[in-house]
Design a protein that fits this description.
The protein is an alpha/beta fold. It contains twelve helices and 25 strands.
Length: about 500
């Protein structure tokens, strides 16, 4: 529907109808094939809830997105339907947004200066603009360097088609025996899937969503990528690459794996609401489901999420360089974490304060050793992290004490996503699966890659693990099948 084709009365009625739609509950709209968010409301909150500075929204309608924005942003709405403006002002006021500006412009001619906007937002609008290429050029013109363009659309803009399995088409695949099922769609799992497809093997990636790398705001140690590349960008590109090779992909939670002899039965729960169970079979299995880090358990976890993955880190190897000679809070989950990590962390910065959050007591011998190095220990629980714009500047303790910081490292342990393997006797070292140099576990047809196996937890290594595991499987299947004859030459020789 092109807005320019509407009459004045149609525009007025459309605005009235859109204002009534603001009351619709986005949490009631379930997302079918979205691994990281279960409802439209969760998706919008995830995309819009942490925006900062100047935000320009194209075609905001009657303001259905306004409830998801932070209250302190400088919001500009470019809405060509003037009848919408009164509803936008009312909705902004009810949501507590104070800095708003409305303009009757269009996507093809945005009424702001070059390089002046931190984020541009468009939800279900680009499908109706007159000139999509011109509109995208305008968005690029007004965004500051490093600014973001956030859009939700009905259409597949990049042309990549992934065989995305869902509750609606599972039956097409449940009778198939895959060469390989990969459990986990992070960097390691996607790398394995890409190699498997290029080896002409059949593969299915089953992904529960929210891979560890998804939360990384910047990937500093990945060869060839700009150091400010977010983990979610790497994963999206990997998924598109895998899809371009005709791999199968399913958003679901693997509950159990049963060894049937020549095959494995993989039981999967599909869908967060009205879920169904499905069983897939495969000759080989790659466990790539990874781990997730435990964070300080505050009453307001959103306060933690505001800084985790920015300058509140979880990996010293990944981000030690960013902590060089800064005042660093070390947030420990155990005395062992202090002993294993703090003195190594001092390679990057000696300005370390240890926080136990009142979870455990530090022994006197360790306290003495820490004092000898000048590292203070704070055992009072943390009330909240302090900071702004996702940059943590300190912590406030429950007794009101404020400690200024410039960075932080969390070491509170991890949750291993490997319970589906509990029925199979595999060799472990601690919580990690023991593998050979090709990532094969103690079971000859089960491979483990990335953070689940013994080794260094790095995104680039997980991707390499995926290549190793896929290659080992291909070599085995290739040897079993044997060489392919050039049949035409054989027939000609017989003649």
């Amino acid at each position: 529907m092109k807005f320019s084709n509407l009459s004045q009365i149609q525009k007025r009625l459309f605005a009235w109808g859109m204002s009534k739609a603001n009351a619709a509950d986005g949490s009631a709209i379930e997302l079918i094939d979205c691994p990281d968010y279960s409802t439209l409301a969760e998706l919008k909150q995830g995309l819009l809830g942490s925006l900062e500075g100047k935000v320009l929204e194209i075609g905001p309608g009657a303001g259905s997105n306004l409830s998801y924005y932070p209250k302190n942003i400088d919001w500009i709405g470019v809405e060509p339907n003037l009848f919408m403006h009164q509803y936008l002002e009312q909705e902004a006021d009810s949501q507590g947004l104070k800095k708003i500006r409305l303009s009757p412009g269009s996507a093809e001619k945005l009424p702001v200066e070059n390089n002046s906007i931190d984020s541009v937002v468009s939800t279900h609008v680009l499908c109706s603009v007159s000139n999509i290429d011109h509109s995208l050029q305008e968005i690029k013109r007004i965004l500051k360097p490093g600014g973001s363009f956030i859009f939700l659309e009905h259409n597949n803009l990049n042309g990549v088609k992934i065989m995305q399995l869902s509750k609606n088409n599972l039956q097409e695949k449940v009778d198939q025996v895959y060469d390989v099922i990969v459990i986990g769609g992070g960097a390691g799992g996607l790398s394995a899937g890409i190699y498997l497809q290029r080896y002409r093997l059949s593969s299915l990636i089953i992904d529960k969503g929210k891979a560890r790398s998804f939360w990384m705001q910047e990937l500093h140690n990945y060869l060839g990528l700009p150091p400010d590349t977010p983990g979610r960008v790497l994963l999206q590109r990997g998924k598109e690459h895998y899809g371009s090779l005709d791999g199968d992909f399913l958003n679901g939670f693997v509950e159990d794996v049963t060894d049937e002899g020549e095959t494995f039965a993989v039981k999967v729960k599909v869908g967060r609401q009205n879920s169904i169970d499905a069983v897939f079979r495969t000759k080989y299995l790659i466990a790539a489901s990874g781990i997730i880090d435990h964070l300080p358990p505050l009453d307001d976890m959103r306060n933690v999420y505001d800084y985790a993955g920015y300058n509140l880190h979880v990996c010293m190897v990944c981000d030690g360089y960013e902590m060089i000679d800064k005042k660093c809070g070390f947030f420990a989950g155990s005395e062992v974490a202090i002993e294993e990590m703090v003195f190594n962390l001092s390679w990057f910065t000696p300005y370390i304060t240890i926080f136990t959050h009142g979870v455990f007591s530090v022994s006197e011998p360790l306290k003495t050793k820490l004092r000898e190095h000048g590292y203070p220990v704070r055992e009072t629980p943390i009330q909240q992290f302090l900071g702004k714009n996702h940059q943590m500047t300190g912590v406030e303790l429950t007794d009101g004490t404020i400690i200024e910081l410039e960075t932080g490292l969390i070491s509170m342990g991890s949750h291993y996503h490997n319970t589906y393997l509990k029925g199979i006797n595999l060799e472990l070292q601690g919580n990690n699966l023991v593998t050979d140099k090709m990532c094969r576990t103690s079971h000859p047809r089960i491979f483990a890659i990335g953070d689940l196996k013994v080794g260094l937890n790095q995104v680039i290594i997980a991707a390499g693990d995926g290549a190793l595991a896929a290659t080992a499987i291909w070599r085995e299947i290739r040897r079993e099948v044997g060489a392919r004859p050039w049949l035409e030459n054989l027939y000609n020789h017989i003649d």
